[in-house]
Amino acid sequence: QANDIQQWEIFQTPIKLKTFLYHYQNADSIAELYARQIKSNSLLNDYQHIFNRPKGAPLKYMPLLIIFGGCTGCITSLWEKFAKRGKELNKFERIYALYQQQIKADEKFNLAWFKKISGLNEKECETYFRRCRPHNEFILVNNEYDIALYIKNCLQNQTIKN
């Protein structure tokens, strides 16, 4: 029994843990650095094999192609429409197009330009930047003057509500 008591005392000894301080700013900046490196890596972002793949004719033209004997893309178009991989590739193309549209809109409508147009300080500028951001299509279609008018109207409406 004495041996059992000694083993029990060993398990009851407190363990001191070291305090560990973690700074989120450093971790975020490291993650942001790697994200930028991955985004700019040409080997990882080479999607030409997806965009340059052979594509079939749309299914609405299929009867005409069969009648006139030019059914070269019939199987490919059926594969894209009904196969899991074909659906995934088409979905990827749509998402990638939206991503490219977002990048172009972000280049045109950025925080520095918003701050210059609005004349707000840093803290207010960040909050109103999110609230008064128009849709990507509006940003890409309209010129800077129309976007600036939209921002001014949005800021006036926000100050009236507050």
Descriptive report:
The longest helix is centred in the middle third of the chain and has 25 residues, at 84-108. Helix 7 crosses helix 8. The mean pLDDT is 75. By secondary structure, the chain is mostly helical. The chain contains ten helices and no strands. The relative contact order is 0.06.
Strand content: under 5%
pLDDT < 50 runs, ≥5 residues: none
Task: Write the H/E string, N to C.
Answer: HHHHHHHHHH
Mean of all residue-level pLDDT scores: 75
Rough shape?
A: extended
- In total, the number of strands is 0
Number of H- or I-type helical stretches: 10
Quaternary arrangement of the chains shown? Answer: single chain
What's the main sheet like? none
Q: Between the first and last Cα atoms, what is the distance in angstroms?
A: 75 Å
Tell me roughly what share of residues is in helical segments. over 70%
Radius of gyration, Cα only, in angstroms?
29 Å
State the secondary-structure class: mainly alpha
